[in-house]
Amino acid sequence: MANAAGRRATYEDVLAAPPHVVAEVLFGVLYTSPRPAPRQARAASRLGGTLDGPFDRGRDGPGGWVLLDEPELHLGGDILVPDIGGWRRERMPT
């Protein structure tokens, strides 16, 4: 798949996107979407807050996790920005 210019999108396309959008590349196609609206941002924040105690800090839960809001993930040629990402502390990428 290619973008409208007939080429696969790259990280340079992500960097060139306006600052008011989330830019992601999936299967060589650049996708942009507006930054999360307050309702979605609040839901993601609440979810992160709920997960922080047991998973990151180990309060009444397993602990040992690192949780990040909107991390930029590079997976092969894809570049994704999920609302929340989590890794086991020992597997946290650099």
Quickly describe the structure.
Helix content is 27%, strand content 30%.
Overview of the structural elements:
The chain has helices spanning 11-16, 38-56, and strands at 21-26, 29-34, 65-69, 73-75, 78-80, 84-88. It is α+β, with helices and mostly antiparallel strands. Helix content is 27%, strand content 30%.
Task: Draw up the topology in text.
Layout: H1 11-16, E1 21-26, E2 29-34, H2 38-56, E3 65-69, E4 73-75, E5 78-80, E6 84-88
Antiparallel strand pairs: 1-2, 3-6, 4-5
Structural class estimated from helices and strands: alpha+beta
Mean pLDDT metric: 93
Helical content (DSSP H or I, runs of 4+):
25-40%
Order of helices and strands: HEEHEEEE
What is the number of strand segments? Answer: 6
Poorly predicted regions: none
Shape descriptor: flat
Distance between the termini: 30 Å
Radius of gyration: 16 Å
Major sheet attributes: 2 strands, antiparallel
| Tally of contiguous helical segments | 2
Q: Beta-sheet strand percentage?
A: 25-35%
Oligomer: single chain
* Spatial arrangement of strands, main beta sheet: 1-2
What characteristics describe this protein?
94 residues; 2 helices
